Amino acid sequence: MEISAEQFSRIEAFLPVQRGNVSLSNLQVINAILYVAENGCKWRSLPKRFGNWHTIYTRMNRWAKAGVLDRLFEEMQHQQLIRIKIESVSLDSTIVKVHPDGTGALKKTAPRPSASPEPDGPPKFIWLPRMLGPPSRSP
Q1: Is residue 135 part of a domain?
Q2: Which pLDDT score, from 0 to 100, does residue 119 have?
Q3: Residue 52 maps to a domain
Q4: 83-94 pLDDT, tens per residue?
Q5: Residue 15 lies in a domain
Q6: What is the pTM of this model?
C-alpha cells in the first residue's frame, strides 16, 4: 500500500512544512508508515528503499505526538486514499513482559517515590490509526 505523488498532493496541506536539509520527503515517510501498518513489521525491518528506519520512526513519533498523524489518516480515509481497519488487538504473556514484582517475586526493599513522577497518560510508544466509519463502496 503506497500513495502516489498525485495522491500526496491532495493531503500535503495536512503535513508540516519541511525545513532545512532533510534526507527523506514526507511522501517517502508516509509510504514507509503505511508499509509498517500494512505488514506489521518492526521499524528496523523496513526495506532499504524507504530510507533510514530511524529517521522515519523519529518523524512518525514527532507527528504522532503533535496530532499530525491523526489528522493525516482521517483525511486519507475521507478522500478514500487508504482503508485501514483494525479488527482486534490481542496481548498475552508471550509478548508482554512483566516486572518481577508483578509475578509474585519477593521485594527487596520498599518502593520509593521518584523525585519527579510523570503524570499518567497514554503510552508514548503505541500509535494506531482509527477508522472514520465504514468505507463507501464505489462502482
Answers
A1: no
A2: 59
A3: yes
A4: 765 554 555 556
A5: yes
A6: 0.60
Q: Which three cell numbers stand for residue 64?
A: 504522532
Assess whether pLDDT exceeds 60 at residue 82. Answer: yes
CA-to-CA distance for 107 and 99, rounded, in angstroms? 11
The C-alpha cell that represents 12 in the structure block: 500535503
Per the listing, cell 530511524 goes with: 54
- Dihedrals φ, ψ of 89, to 5°? -125, 130
pLDDT given at position 128: 64
C-alpha torsion sign, points 41, 74, 70, 87: negative
Instruction: Copy the grid coordinates of residue 79.
Output: 478522500
Please, what is the end-to-end C-alpha distance for the chain in angstroms?
Answer: 21
Total structural domains in the chain? 1
How long is the chain? 139
Read off the DSSP letter of residue 116. Answer: S
Domain residue limits at 78? 5-87
